[in-house]
Amino acid sequence: MFSSTISRWTMLHFAAATALFLVAQVAMAAGAAYPVLPLSAPATLAVVHLLTVGWITLLMLGALHQFVPVITAQTGVAGISALVSLIAILAGLAGMEAGFLSLAGQLPLSVILALPLGGTLVLAGVIAGVIPLAKMLWQTRPLPFAARFVAVGLAFLFATIAAGLVMGLAFARPDWISWPEAFSRGLQLHLMAGLLGWFMLTAMGVSYRLLTMFTLAPEERGPLGTAVLGLSAGGLAATWLLSIAAAAGAPVAPALIAATASATVLGVALYFVDMVRLYRARRRNKLELNTGMARAALVAFALGVLLAVWMLVSGNDALVGPLAYLFVFGWLSGLGLSQLYKIVPFLTWLERYGSVLGKQPVPRVQDLVDEERDEPWFILYFGGVAAGTVFGLMGWQHLWRIAIISHLVASLLIARALWIARRGTTSQARPGRPVSGTPAAPPSLLAPNLVSSE
Ligand code: HEM
Asked: Which of 3, 38, 134, 392 has the most CB atoms within 10 Å of its CB?
């Protein structure tokens, strides 16, 4: 019944992304990258791209294959193009990794060509994945609120890869790139587009959609939501375009860039206000574990913004590493893990029970997981990241590595919980659990604007 609305390759994206997330954490804990090596060390760059391309980008693309049809109220999901995209991105990432490792001296220097070639394959994979999403977004004009963040985020993904490719080429064939500032201005544009444009805006849009759905809060965000979108997405797009114009030598007043950047920060601040408003207006009082833990990710995001503002005001560049760590592990990965904890059981439940829905009693989605068992792992995860950030700020590298080990262990246990949800029996089967009946409404992760079935 629901098979045509389940994105077939989303789960494979999630599995690959989670595996790469674990590998990246192992490398950090083992001292093969930052914080033991410098941030700019080639081995760190290799691990950074395992996290940014391998973990977060694959996680987001996998989720978007499922959610763009939902947030645009379109029928049908991406077909084989999603698999082609996944394979190309993974193969391209492998090339990029080889290129970075050749810079680190762990592979012959001639392998450096694999860096721009791998980046080109990543670009091809992203194009294959984004085309069906872009088509759906295009057919849904005017775009729904959450979809607007996603559309801008996807545009920034291409900007990120373009800037990355220029730098990759500058490493591999410096004679081809006549842009002496490729590694300074180019990196700035790459980071702004990747971390803020692609990751932050997309996560904001997806969080609006998922949190209103899971807490049963009003989806219509009114003038405050419009201000969040206009200031954060509009401000960031203007800042990026002005920065690229300045990098190309156009006379752009620094005050103008400062003004658009401040508008972006104001937009993000209003997002936090709106999130508090959303939680207050929710109709579901008892929060499930995924929504409760999303709050911890939002707190990490808010602290990250405060830390970033402090870094800019104080000019203390030493904060960059702990700040990036908090942003990637606390906000993006924390939000990702907590939402996987809902999405994986939900899609599994649909695959298993979708065909008998309404015909016979079925378990609840939440019966596929055991919140009591798994809550400590989420606490260990966020506790580890909080401790790691503090140790990083204090410059206590050994303790920071111990904190990384603790969130690596937590991630492993959360991955195990997802595996059990996928492969195991429902917790409903265990003694002492109430038996659930037939759900009253279709699942909201597939049918737009419907109340959740649990
Ligand atoms: C979603 C996509 C991507 C994101 C979010 C991303 C993010 C990042 C980040 C955070 C850094 C800084 C790392 C550090 O200083 O330790 C970085 C550096 C770099 N990225 Fe990417 N990246 C992405 C894709 C790519 C692609 C496709 C390429 C193409 C080859 C690429 C090439 C590079 C290069 C060459 C550097 C090093 C620049 C330097 O040190 O001067 N990136 N990237």
From this structure: 392
CA distances, 406 to each of 31, 376, 381, 418, 435 (Å): 15, 12, 7, 19, 36
**Residues in CB range of 194: below 8 A, 6 or more apart:** 52, 156, 157, 160, 164
> Domain-by-domain residue ranges, the chain?
1-141, 319-428+436-443
Residue with tokens 């700019």: 40
Best residue among 102, 167, 196 to mutate for probing ligand 1's pocket (most ligand atoms within 8 Å of CB) is: 167
Model pLDDT for residues 1-11, shown as the tens digit of each residue? 455 578 889 99
Ligand 1 neighbours, Cβ below 6 Å, are 39-40, 44-45, 48-49, 52-53, 57, 96, 115-116, 119, 122, 160-161, 164-165, 167-168, 171, 183, 187, 190-191, 194-195, 198
Residue whose CA is at the smallest distance from ligand 1 atom 33 = 164
Q: Which residue is listed with tokens 């913004």?
A: 305
pLDDT in tens, 401-442: 999 999 999 999 999 999 999 987 655 444 444 444 444 444
Mutating to test ligand 1, I would choose from 48, 49, 130 the residue with most ligand atoms within 8 A of its C-beta, which is 49
